[in-house]
Amino acid sequence: MLTRRNFIGTSGLLLASSALPHVALAQNGPLRLEITEGVIEPLPFALPTFIGQGEVAADISRVIAADLRGTGLFRQIPPDAYISQVTSFNAPVSYPDWQAINAQALITGEVENRADGQIAVRFRLFDVFSQAPLGEGLQFVGPVDSWRRMAHTVADQVYSRITGESGYFDTRVAFIHEEGPKNARLKRLAIMDYDGANVQYLTDSRALVLAPRFSPQGDRILYTSYESGSPQVYVMDVASVQRRPLEAISGGTMTFSPRFAPSGQTVVLSLEQGGNSDIYGIDLATGSRQQLTSSPSIETAPSFSPDGSQIVFESDRTGQQQIYVMPAGGGEGRRISTGDGRYGTPVWSPRGDYIAFTYQADGRFHIGVMRTDGSEQRLLTSSFLDEGPTWAPNGRVLMFTRETPGDDGAPAVYSVDISGRNLQRVATPGMASDPAWGPLQS
Amino acid sequence: MMISFLRKAPVVLLVGTMALAACSQGGFRGDDAAGGLGAAGAGAGGIGDPSSPAYFNQVIGDRVLFAVDQSTLSSQAQATLAGQAQWLLSNPEFTALIEGHADEQGTREYNLALGARRAAAVQEYLISQGVPASRLRTISYGKERPIEICSTEACYSQNRRAVTVISAGLGA
């Protein structure tokens, strides 16, 4: 069990500046990144390797630094530039030494091996030019093998204190692991940490599986599987790996493209009968089914607004895919995508401010975002095949599938922030597709 | 106060699924060039035997092709399907699984729906030609099972297809 406690309240460690109003400091101090204003120059930070015995202190330090660097918002000052050496976690900070190397943020920490076999990770964040701590020191206690989660949690704290946004490092991503040639792909449902570490496979490769979706609580995954012979939506409990088809459907009927409602109690999906796909809602407790669209065209890819009141989806009722919004109870919907080309896979941001989508035109694919009324459309990426965006829980970063063309074409998972910067490939073991970002775990 | 807020990540065991493989089992597929029956020559059960699956797959043609985003049957497709219907009516011990496919130029969900629409178009046509609905099933593979793997129209046009996979006494 990993536990967290406030230094001041529990362990009697007093920060030198504990009398300062930390909240006010966080809001008014100079160490503040406004992500929406377009950070061009990443904020330089110093992160002396955490004090502690064994490799775990260095490992934790490395992961924290990688998390921060990976946002594109922070730049790590190389340790060989440091003037001060941090030899004790509680020693006073020599601010001029960090100012001299232009470190704006300083992160110090230590890892203690406890008698009970667990480790305690402590950290502090300092605003170097204000010469003051930014927020309180924190301690996390847990088993050694949860060290990555502890590192991500520290990085989430640092990110959150400096940007004012919640973090997204202590998260997991469900995805499809792929093997084999392009015309005989084997696919397995898998989950990983957001940075590609700790991959766990949840199905074998006997049945084709597609497009997982995390529950809002992160405890369950919806996905489409061919294990019964035809595509059907399954729900899997992540901890037990138990799965069941969402409902018994008759032969020749396909269910696909599921997504949880924000409550986690209802699922929306596409159900196909006689070649026609419409959107339905299914109550997970009762199994009762409600038809939400009724049209001879293809209606699919439903996604709830975070308040659960509306559903965005795609339809080809005009002859090509476009994006529509309807009330959660169903209806015709009003079209919000207005450009030429094809708009698909809309996903409502967890913040409610944007809808991400796949855009296809002139033989290229793009990931884009637009306001929920369709205005302010912005394309963030461009390639032979980009599709299927999924939001980080803070609504600032997207992951998606990018596939390369040709006989040896292969899919990989990429991330990009909503300004279109910081495009990165996520380090998966082998080919990967259909990422679904889960909630912040801590 | 100690607030418990993280739990050790659960141990996830790999479990086997009890499913059949995704491709039809026991079917006579034209997709697999090395499928055996297709190369069986002119004898009984071979391509020269009009009641053979090889004849169905290669002489009549087991597939029809579609335009981008479309499920409309061309006159050429209708002629192929009329031949398929006649064969199925002459060989009542066979059932058919109609696979709908799409090319890679589309999103995954949309292509699944599009494949279903194509398979249904073929099913409806076969029924209109007198084939009992009870002998026909459909499945969509979307863009998951391309037969040609290049990324040009030459391959895409072959992948936008519905394939009628016949089985002796299986399925349906």
- Helical content of chain B (DSSP H or I, runs of 4+): 25-40%
Strands of chain A, count: 31
CATH superfamily of the largest domain in chain A: TolB, C-terminal domain
The residue ranges of chain B in which pLDDT falls below 50 over 5 or more consecutive positions are: 1-26, 32-40
Report the largest inter-chain contact: A-B, 80 and 54 residues
Main sheet makeup of chain A: 7 strands, mixed
Query: Based on CA inertia axes, which overall geometry of chain A fits?
Result: globular
Q: Would you spell out the secondary-structure blueprint of this structure?
A:
The complex is a heterodimer of chains A (442) and B (172).
Chain A: E1 2-6, H1 7-11, H2 22-28, E2 43-46, H3 55-70, E3 74-76, H4 95-100, E4 105-113, E5 118-127, E6 132-133, E7 138-143, H5 147-163, E8 172-179, E9 186-193, E10 200-201, E11 209-214, E12 220-225, E13 232-237, E14 243-245, E15 254-260, E16 266-273, E17 276-283, E18 289-291, E19 299-304, E20 310-315, E21 322-327, E22 334-335, E23 342-348, E24 354-361, E25 364-371, E26 378-379, E27 386-391, E28 397-403, E29 411-417, E30 424-425, E31 431-437
Parallel strand pairs in A: 2-3, 2-4
Antiparallel strand pairs in A: 1-7, 4-5, 5-6, 5-7, 8-9, 8-31, 9-10, 11-12, 12-13, 13-14, 15-16, 16-17, 17-18, 19-20, 20-21, 21-22, 23-24, 24-25, 25-26, 27-28, 28-29, 29-30
Helix pairs in contact in A: 3-5
Chain B: E1 3-6, H1 53-61, E2 63-65, H2 75-90, E3 94-101, H3 108-128, E4 136-142, H4 153-159, E5 161-168
Parallel strand pairs in B: 3-4
Antiparallel strand pairs in B: 2-5, 3-5
Helix pairs in contact in B: 2-3
